[in-house]
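P.,

For your records, the input lines for the assembly:
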Amino acid sequence: MFELFLDIFAYRDNFWTRMDPGAKLAMALSAIAVILLSSRAVLPLSVFCLCFACMLWIGVPVRLIAVRLTAPMGIVAVLALLKAFLPAPPGSSVLWSGTLYGWKLAATHEGLREGLLIGAKVLGAVGAMLFLSTVTPAHRIFHVLRRFRIPQGWIEVAMLMYRFTFVLVEHASEGSAAQRLRLGYSGIRRSVSSAGMLAGSVILRSFDQARSTHDAMVLRGYKGSFPFGEESAPRRQDLYGAAAVITVLLIFYSALEWRIFS
Amino acid sequence: MNRRTILKAAVFPVPAIILSAGPVHAMHISEGILPLPWAALWFAVALPFVAWGLRDLRRFDREVPFAKPLIGLVGAAVFIISCMPVPVPTAGTCSHPCGTGLAAVFIGPALTVLVSSVALVLQALFLAHGGLSTLGADIVSMGVAGAFSGYGIYRLAGRIGVPWYAALFLAGLVSDWATYAVTSFQLASALAAPGSTGQMFGAVAIAFMPTQIPLGVFEGFLCVGAYRFVKARRPEVLMALGGGAV
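C-alpha cells returned:
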C-alpha cells in the first residue's frame, strides 16, 4: 500500500503539469459534475478513456492506474449485483432467474442497467480525479483552494499533513519491514501486536517531528500562521483552455441528454 | 428484511472479492457513486462538524504553541495507520483500519473530523479511495460517526470504571462499525429504488460484512496496542495530547 502513495508524476515537466492548478481543478470538478448528472454511460466512459489516454501519454504505468481503480471497482461490483438482483419496480423485464437452495433469484434488465451505469460513472469520475492528482502536486491543489475561500487553518493542517505523510510513510515502511524480518506477522496474534506497536511508534514519531518542525518554523519567522505570499494570477491560455474543455463537456452532455443531434 | 434478501446479499460478496483481488479498503464511498443531490446533502451535514473542528483548532492553538504542526503530524500518523495493510482471514485478502477511533482518543472528536477531512482528500487524490464529490458523505461516516461514536464509548466506559484497555478496544471497534453502518445507510438511501431503502441497507450491510466485522475487531486491538505502546514508552505524550483521560 505504501508504495502506491506516490506523487512523482505530478513533478514531471509536461503540458499538463505546467497548467494552472485552479484551471485543472475546475476542469476535473466540472467533469465529475456532468458525469454525476449524466443518465447514459457514454459520457462517463468517454471521460475515462480521455483521462486514461492522457495518463498513458505522460507515462503513468498502466499497473498503477489499474491498482488504484481496484478498490472503487470492487465496491461497484457489489453494488451492481445488488441493483441487478434486488426487487425492481413492477413491469421490469427479467434477465435471468433461477433457484438457489430453494430460493428464487431474479436479475432484471433495469437493475443491471442501473448497476452498469453506476460502474461507468465511477470509472469516469475516478479517472478524472486520478488524472488531476497525477499532474498536480497536492500542495498546489491546497494552495489554490484559498481562491475558493477555504479557511486558512484547514489549508495549513492539510499542507502539514501532506508534507509529513511522506516522512511518516518512510518510518512506517522501515518499521514494518523490520517487524517482518523478525517474523512479526507470522500469526494473527503476532500480527495484531506488531501492527499496534507500529501504530504507536508512528504516533510517537509524529509527536517528536511536530516539536522539531515547530522549532524550525519559529527560527524561520513562524508566528502562528503560514505566510502564503501573493498568489500568482493564472495564465490567460490556461483559463481559455479550461473554459474550452468545460464548454465541450457541457455540449457533449446536452447533446446526449436531450438527443440534440439525433 | 426477508430471508430471501439476506441469502442474496450473503452470496454476493464472493464475486466481489474475486473481482477486487487487490487490497480492500476501509469502507469509503467512491467517486461517482452518489447522485449530485445526495452528495450535496452530505456536504451540508459535514460542514458544521468541520467548522467545529476548526474552532477547536484555534482554541488548541492558543493553548499549545505547536498546535498546528502537532495536529498536522497526528493527522498524518492517522492517515498512515489507516493505510496499513492488515490480513482479513474471512475474505482472504487485506484491509485497512479507519484510525478515527484512535485519533479521537488522542486529540478529541472535533479535531479528528478536521484531520479526517484532510486525510479523505489525500486518499481520494492519491489512492482513488473515496472521492471529491463523495467527500461530504465520507466525512460524515468516517469522521463524524467514527470519531464521535468511538470517543463517546471511550468516555462512557471510562466513567463506569471499565479498564483502559477494554475502553480502548471498544473505541476502535465501535468507531469502525459505526463508519460501516453509516456508509451502508448512505449507499442504501441514495441508490435504492423508492420504498426499498431498508432492504438495500440490509443487503449492503451484509455484503460488506466479511471484511468489516473482523476489521472492527482488529481495529479495537490496534487501538489497545498503539495506546499501550505510547503509554509504556512516553506517557507524557498522552498527557500533552489530552488522551490520558481514562
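Two observations worth noting. Chain A is about 70% helix and 5% strand. Chain A touches chain B through 97 residues (CB under 8 Å).

Regards
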